[in-house]
Amino acid sequence: MMKKVLVIGASGGMGYAITSELISREIFEVVAFARTRSKLERLFGDKPNISIISGDVFNTDELRAVAQDVEIIFHAMNVPYHEWEAKLPVLLTNILTVAREANARLIAVDNIYAYGRASGEKVAEDFPKQPHTKKGQIRLRLENMIKESGVQYLIAHFPDFYGPHAENTLLNETFQRVVRDQKTVFVGDPTIPREYIYTPDGAKALVELSLRDTAYGQNWNIPGVGVITGNEILQILRRCGYSKGLTIITKFMVRMGGLFNPTMREVVEMFYLNETPVILSGEKLARELGTIPLTPYEVGIVTTFNVMKTLG
User: Fold this and answer.
1) What is d(CA 77, CA 54) in angstroms, rounded to the nearest whole number?
2) Is-above-0.85 flag for pTM?
3) Which of 122, 116, 233 is nearest to 177 (CA)?
4) Grouped pLDDT means (10 residues each) for the chain, 312 residues
5) For 3-162+196-224+278-295, which CATH superfamily applies?
């Protein structure tokens, strides 16, 4: 019997990857939910075992209707930084309400902000969460809301995303300008190694965890293949034929941009991740799954670039 699952935020970067992975398993009946139906149709209109529904996650009645009879809810939706404080708790409250009513398990896609600063070691799930930024504190508040809700949950922490259709990411603008054959940009020092996760890898690990009863009631760190510098990313793009230069986006430039753009204002406090990156440990995940999906950066970046080039 197929499992009925709901993906909230199915048209976003990780939401797209999760939805695609669920479809590929052929054991799920997938409900893909997002605000814009045309984008859902473009991404999934020709796929089997999927229902495409557009609506407003802030409307509890609409959300309740799409959550009927689902066994698992994947929460992969986000909002712009400057709306986090006002909207994310409301969004999560709505999701938790319908999850309780449907007796559904909740799988939450989360980032690394709640961990705060790390001193160089790889961060395991038991690393003390002492966020020093407003957004880190918001993420920790949301995590506690889930744990206190009575809903069966699984919380997955990911590093920065990249991959096909992952648009709201640090690397997306870098790749977009390369696709347009323009001088590209990179946020932060391009000599500092950082961790990114290829969204199809993250989705594979997360869907596999979703099938294991023992994985619930826990936090899971889902790491990338390792670390890579901005200069190394540029060299991979050069092997794709790119020959233009690179502009480094500094903290000062982001701060100046924040004078006119509310999202850029919010980026400034997270700039520490470009200076002292948080790197996730995958030891717990490897013990649970045996092997972790780890696509080499060369393969993931080239695949992402080729998809973006095809889309134009």
Assistant:
1) 13
2) yes
3) 233
4) 92 96 93 95 91 95 95 96 94 97 97 90 94 96 98 98 92 94 94 97 98 97 97 95 92 76 77 92 97 97 94 74
5) NAD(P)-binding Rossmann-like Domain (3.40.50.720)
